[in-house]
Amino acid sequence: MAETWLFPDDLIHLKQESIRTYNALSATPLPDPERAELDERLFRLSIRIGDHPYWREHPHTPAARVGLHRGRRRRRL
Prior knowledge:
Layout: H1 9-27, H2 32-50, H3 54-57, H4 62-69
Helix pairs in contact: 1-2
């Protein structure tokens, strides 16, 4: 059976924001100041995601990271 997780909403929102930021970086060529600002934002979001309190009580496995990327909010059975 595949693992399921109950990710907190704030962690889901951080991940969604990081995906939006990444997409903005890769969508079109950007002027250097705007690119630098988005790079910095993506870096800070990555730190906040990796440092989120959720990971202190749950394994930070590749499968969990994929689940987070997909925005899963299912409960363990």
